[in-house]
Every structure is written in C-alpha cells, then in structure tokens.
Model the fold of this input.
Amino acid sequence: MIDHTSSRRPAGEKVIVIGGGVAGLAAAVALAEDGFRVTLLEKRATLGGRASSFTDQTTGEMVDNCQHITMRCCTNLEFFYRRIGVWDKIRFYSKLTFLDQQGKPAVIQNGSPFPAPFHTLFSFARFHPLSLSEKSSVAKALIAILRAGTSPNRDSESIGNWLRKQKQPERAMAHFWRPILVSACNEEPDRISCEIGFKLFRDGFLSNAEAYQMGVPSVRLSDLYTQPSIETLSALGADIQLKIHVDALSVADRKVESVTLSDGTTLSADFYLSAVPFDIMLKMLHSDIREAPFFKDISLLEYSPITGVHLWFDKPFEVREPIALLDRETQWIFPKENTQPDGAELSKGGAYLALVVSSSKSLLSLSADEIIDICLKEVQEALPQSRSARLLHGRVIKEKKATFAPIPGVESLRPKQTTPIENLFLAGDWTRTGWPATMESAARSGYLAAERIMERAGRPKSLLQPDMPPSRLAKWFLGK
Ligand SMILES: Cc1cc2nc3c(=O)[nH]c(=O)nc-3n(C[C@H](O)[C@H](O)[C@H](O)COP(=O)(O)OP(=O)(O)OC[C@H]3O[C@@H](n4cnc5c(N)ncnc54)[C@H](O)[C@@H]3O)c2cc1C
Done:
C-alpha cells in the first residue's frame, strides 16, 4: 500500500489518462508511482466507471449499479486493490452454492485431498443437479479443456459448439456450463469464443485449488474506488480532475497533439492513455482515423447487457452467502447490508437483496415492474424464509452496454494497448488481455498500457502480475 501521508511532485513525462474506471486507475497509479506526471480526466463525480454506486431516492440507500464480484485468480485486480489499500474490503467465499428449482442446495467447493484440477471432486460428486453420467460427461470435457493447448482456430469457434461436439447433455449445459459461462462472460455459450471460455475454466476452476473462490466487496463500489484512489493518486502527486468530459483527441503526423474538453479547453501531454469504452474512444477520433484498419476492427466489437435488481423487504431474513439459481431468470442473489441506518429509513432493519441477470437481452423490453415481479417470485420460491417479508421497494438497473460481447472471433478484434498513433495508448477491459470483460481484464489492460508507456519513455518495467500457479498435476495436464 502506498504511503498517503507524503505527497511527492514527480518530474517525469506528462501523461493524460482519460477515464477513471479500473483500467485508467490501475494505469494512473502505476505511472504516477514511476514518476510520470499524471493527469486523470474523468467525466463523472466518482471513480470506478462501470463499477459504480448511486443514491436510491426512495430508500436513501447507496446502491451499486450492479453487484460486482472478483475471484482469487484475478491477480492484477488484487494487486491494484492492494496499491490503493482496499484489499481487506474484499470478502472471499470458498463455497459456491447453487439452488435447484426445488430450492435444494448444491455446493462446489475445495475440500478433497487432491490437488487441482481434482480439488472440488468430493463436492462435484455430490452435485445433485447433475446425474452421474452427466457429471462424467462434464468431467471429460473439463479435462479436454485443460489438455487442449493452444490452437489458432479456437477463437473462431463458440464454446457452445465445442461443448456440443463433446456431446454434453442438455442438463449439463443448463446446470453447469451455462450458469458459469453466462455469469463470467456475460453471453450465451453460442456467442462465447472458445478461447475465452477455455481461459475461464482453466484459470478459474482447473489449475489452482483456490482460484475459483468468489470475492465480494464489503463496501459500496464508489467507496471501494473513489476516495482510496484519490488519496493514493494525490499522495503520488497526480492531478485528478472529476466532472471533466473529453470530447476529442487532436492528431497530426501520427501523434496526439492535445485533448479537447467539452468546454473547449485543450490540454497537452507527452503520452495519452484512453481508458474509456471502445465506442467512446472511437468517437474522440476524427472520422478519417476511424477508417484505418486498426480502429475499424474495434468498431466491430459488440455490447452485451446485464440487469441488476435491488429488492428491499420490511423484515430481516437470513441469506448467509451469495446463491446462484438454476433454471431461473435470476442468476445470482447477493445478501446486502443496509449501509445508512440514519438516511435509509425505508430499508432500515429489513432484508436487502441484490440480484444479477447477466446477458439479460430478454429483459430489456420488459418494464421495471415486470422484472421485479419475475425476480420477486423467483426469490420467494427459492428462499422460503423470504415469504413472510413484504417487498417495500424494488429498483431495476438495465446496463445495456455492460460489457463487450465475447463472440467468436472477438480476440482478433480486440486491440493491443499500443496504436498506430505514436503517443496514444489504449486501456479498458475490451482491449487484448485474453480475459472476458471483467475488472481483472480492466486492471490488466491498465498495467499493459502503462508498461508500453514506460517502454516508450525508455524506462521499461514489468507490472503485469503472475497468474496463480497451477498445481503440479494441473501442469502435467496442461503439458507444461
Ligand atoms: C452491470 C455490470 C455488472 C458487472 N459485474 C461484474 C462483476 O461481477 N465482476 C467483474 O469483474 N466485472 C463486472 N462487470 C464489468 C466491469 O464493470 C468492467 O469490466 C470494468 O469496470 C471496466 O473497467 P474499465 O476501466 O475498462 O471501463 P469503465 O469502467 O467503463 O471506465 C471508463 C471510465 O471513463 C469515463 N469516461 C467515459 N467517457 C469519458 C469522457 N468522454 N471523458 C472523460 N471520462 C470518460 C467513464 O465515466 C468511466 O469512469 C460488470 C459490469 C456491469 C456494467
């Protein structure tokens, strides 16, 4: 963690970072630590970007736009959290609990005496939503993923298609593959590149016995990111400018000359790092530049939605841990604490649940009330203890542009962090990190972009954090 008590004034090259999401913040902290003079421009009043919070007017409660989770395998996000001093705000769960339609729990957890990839063997053997033969099919496909090595064609095939070729039964798709893939990649299996799907299972579930553990912030996302990042960056002498909208990048002779803000002001630097979503980055460029093949590929990326649903009840009831629902519209239920006992009169004392529906295309045309009806019914069916509590208030947040869609072929469209414009670098979960659109991908992209800037400044440094080490057995399967 960085010492916040002493503020230093760096004397190195000037870098303008556009966008204060995880990608921009990770890069900004790394660059400022290395002596670059960093100016961070963020259009909102808070930091954290798509991982953000707002005040719900009805309850007075600070609400996350949607529950965000991390996993132990997200080593770069962990590194960033440690830099800004919030790692202790992440609570890890070693039990992944699934509820079937009858409300019967099934758990995946580490607990067998065997190393990865067999660390969850005992719990998987008892995983009742799958029959013995379905489990055996899943196990064979998981081993095939581990042994698959690299293939240039892997990105062009969907994991849905690959799983069909592995003869995965329909129930294995519904009760195992789809819930994990949709939650982590935010798309349906037929629209997920095999490359990305394989990465998820290898890094998240098969190589290391702790990698799958789920981390949930114990504070609201704005509290996780805004003040800790401001304090860290200020201590490093960086200039953080909130509520500043960058309109355009002026480019001449393959170099960015300045950024233009919405009030017409221009700012210049030695290096420029765009850490905004891909469509916003493209809009900042002149149309001639957007036509260049490098940027044209980026324009082919697509978005996929996530819907967050918040439910407040009049009475408390116990939900001990996050729960995944099988065969339901609602994919995850997270128990939340009301954080504002004074301000949040309506929600005081009662239960508060945050629900998540990833790849929520089918919900986009429904009204908030219709979505709340569906979700409430599912919560009451899944959690008998909730039935005696009355819903006081529900809030639906449809994030239409939640993440890029990891469709087959996507890896060839995702750009590296360098661009044909000499002093323009890119970060963002959508840039080429090999990861699905997650906070880990954003942190990785920030470090990769910062590494490229340091290289260009003649002071190369390695920032990217190593993955969790695979067990010896997993290494053998991986052919390493
Ligand atoms: C509903 C939802 C649920 C999610 N759940 C999870 C999860 O559980 N786990 C997980 O790991 N990931 C999750 N994600 C994905 C995660 O939020 C993103 O991958 C990550 O936050 C992206 O970070 P980023 O820095 O790349 O981009 P962003 O967070 O989009 O940051 C870009 C920043 O640039 C700013 N900006 C944009 N335009 C301008 C401009 N013109 N001038 C100045 N600033 C500008 C924005 O305000 C923003 O702060 C979820 C996303 C959503 C939307």
